[in-house]
Design goal:
The protein is of the alpha+beta class and about 375 residues long. It folds into two domains: about 220 residues, 3-Layer(aba) Sandwich (Rossmann fold), CATH 3.40.50; about 150 residues, Beta Barrel (OB fold (Dihydrolipoamide Acetyltransferase, E2P)). It is built from nine helices and 21 strands. The strands form four sheets. Strands 6-7-8-3-9-10 form a six-stranded mixed β-sheet, sandwiched between helices. Strands 11, 12, 13, 14, 20 and 21 form a six-stranded antiparallel β-sheet that branches. Strands 15-19-16-17-18 form a five-stranded antiparallel β-sheet, with no helix packed on it. The protein is globular. This is Iron(III) transport system ATP-binding protein.
């Protein structure tokens, strides 16, 4: 339905978008995900006609709309700030863009859209009389009222508190599926992108870093940036020593090294929830399985559904810290073997499934000192 071809944009000497290519299918929900300054909002502004690209083209169902004014594109846009008219009622706000209809048709369409977002009974009120979540629903109803060809959402939930945000995620997704409207959403929140989208387009420094289904981005990140931005991941500098084996510090680990030659420096990505912890046996064999290692518990952090456990594994490097996540028990208490005693940290058995270690190309900046061993748990 929509084709973005080699879109570039600069502000002065600063490149903001660098040759963006994107194809959007009819009825698809796509999230443009990335940190502040990656160019995702600029791309959205170019799509809706507020900004003009320096190079490239935008095709809507085969028609070039690159230079077409925003008013002629028939796109619905929902902004972070709601952008409602404070002096108009809710119904008047929703019907504002329906000037080509008669008065009765406008009123009927406004009530239809308000009913769709669950606010029909609020039609007579003014925006100031509504909560933030209700105002955003009104903004969504207003964007949908003219039956737009494309719906663009510019961080629509970022101004709301966590509980309201979670509820509106599912509401927006339900409406999008019900109406079958093609939707692009800009967000820096990975939870929003993963939970709402058919496809996530991860952007970094004005380029598309990786795109695919939420499951694919989470399970198979294509770069250290993707691994760190989508979810949390331990990143372990390693050296491929043979097919299916890599060395971290002095320890060899069984892992998938497909695509990397022997001697290649890599980063082994490991999701915290993939790590299994067990009580350390009283006698631990010197020649144990390569991915089963003794470790020391540094601290634990209760997070509700799970408990974060920070670990040091001497076999992988003295300064190395791993993060693991364990599901919270029914009584929300840690097992005794994880708590230690008498002022001494708990000793546990660390199990790393071979299939959980994901090899990534190591950045050039990390290869200057190949003997250095460290890991980091990259924040979401």
């Amino acid at each position: 339905m929509l084709s973005v071809k080699h879109i570039s944009k600069r502000y002065g000497a600063q490149p903001v978008l660098r040759g963006i290519e994107l194809a959007v299918a009819a009825g698809e929900f796509i999230s443009l995900l990335g940190p502040s300054g990656c160019g995702k909002t600029t791309l959205l502004r170019i799509l809706c006609g507020i900004e003009t690209p320096d190079t490239g083209s935008i095709l809507l169902q085969g028609q070039d709309i690159t230079r077409q004014p925003a008013s002629q594109r028939r796109f619905g846009v929902v902004f972070q700030s709601y952008a409602l008219f404070p002096n108009l009622t809710v119904a008047q706000n929703v019907s504002y863009g329906l000037q080509d209809l008669g008065r009765r048709e406008r009123a009927a369409r406004a009530l239809e859209m308000l009913a769709l977002v669950g606010l029909a009974e609020q039609a007579h009120k003014y925006p100031a009389q509504l909560s933030g979540g209700q105002q955003q629903r009104v903004a969504l109803a207003r964007a949908l009222a003219p039956r737009p060809r494309l719906l663009l959402l510019d961080e629509p939930l970022s101004a709301l508190d966590a509980q309201v945000r979670a509820g509106l995620r599912s509401e927006i997704r339900r409406l999008q599926k019900q109406l079958g409207i093609t939707t692009l959403m800009v967000t820096h929140d990975q939870d929003e992108a993963l939970s709402m989208s058919d496809r996530v387009v991860l952007m970094h420094q004005g380029q598309v870093e990786q795109q695919g289904s939420p499951q694919a981005l989470y399970a198979r990140p294509a770069s250290p940036f993707a691994a760190g931005f989508v979810g949390k991941m331990n990143l372990l500098p390693a050296l491929v020593v043979a097919g299916g084996r890599a060395r971290v510090g002095a320890q060899e680990l069984a892992c998938d090294t497909h695509g990397f030659k022997t001697g290649s420096p890599v980063l082994l990505g490991l999701r915290p929830e993939a790590i299994a912890l067990r009580p350390l046996p009283s006698t631990f064999p010197a020649q144990a399985q390569p991915n089963c290692l003794p470790a020391e518990v540094l601290d634990t952090v209760f997070l509700g559904p799970c408990t974060l456990v920070r670990l040091r594994c001497e076999a992988l490097g003295a300064e190395h810290v791993l993060e693991a996540e364990l599901p919270t028990a029914r009584d929300a208490q840690l097992p005794a073997w994880l708590q230690g005693g008498a002022g001494r940290p708990a000793q546990v058995l660390l199990e790393i499934p071979r299939e959980a270690l994901h090899a990534l190309a190591q950045p050039l900046s990390m290869r200057a000192e190949p003997a250095t061993v460290f890991s980091q748990a990259v924040p979401a």
